[in-house]
Amino acid sequence: MKLISWNVNGLRAVVKKDFLSKIEKMDADVFCIQETKAQDDQVKEALAELQGYRVCSNSAVRKGYSGTAVLSKVEPICVTNGIGIEEHDQEGRVITVEFQHFYLINVYVPNSGAELVRLDYRAEWDKALLAYMKRLEQTKPVVICGDFNVAHEPIDIARPKDNYNKSAGYTQKEIDGMDRFIANGFVDTYRHFYPDKKDSYSWWSYRFGAREKNIGWRIDYFLISQALLPSLKEAFILNEVDGADHCPVGVVL
Questions:
Q1: What does pTM read for this prediction?
Q2: Residues carrying an active site annotation
């Protein structure tokens, strides 16, 4: 199975930028999309011309904000929205799709915000997400992908010193959250294959020509349960695919 994750920063906007033909060209079995910025009916309408995929979405209560969607060629056994905690389930940030051999969680982790106003909430969110991941893992292995809104290590960000403990996505609290995922047995698939590869980013600011200069951050991940490691064939970042401030990332199992 080829799985791809992409924060599209507005599904209806990206559909106008040749998104459907890009989906067809990438030819994944499952696409996980974050930041749809659309309600469920708007997601279905935007993807109405897409052939061969079952579309599941989870929208935020607040319109035009956050939201996730899963497009799957493989019929899922079950689809669940949220993590079962009302406080954390208002923004459409999680969809879990159960397949025969694993659970696939599509996640859009909250950004800590300007001046880190949401950092404490974000830290609690990370802990609640990990508890949910471990709960699912008791039944079958887990693949979790999406925009985690954190550069895990200095190698994952172009300018670590300038941003450490100053910018959302590169504070110690957020790094600790990713450390806990790894410590609890989840494998960063990209680093599994490319432990020392520099300049591998998945997000670039729209300002200052950051993408052209490759001044980026790697904040989009595929993490998998240890039990799936023998099935992991490939992990990749499709940084040549444009249309949003993030690019797609993926794995082959």
A1: 0.98
A2: 108, 147
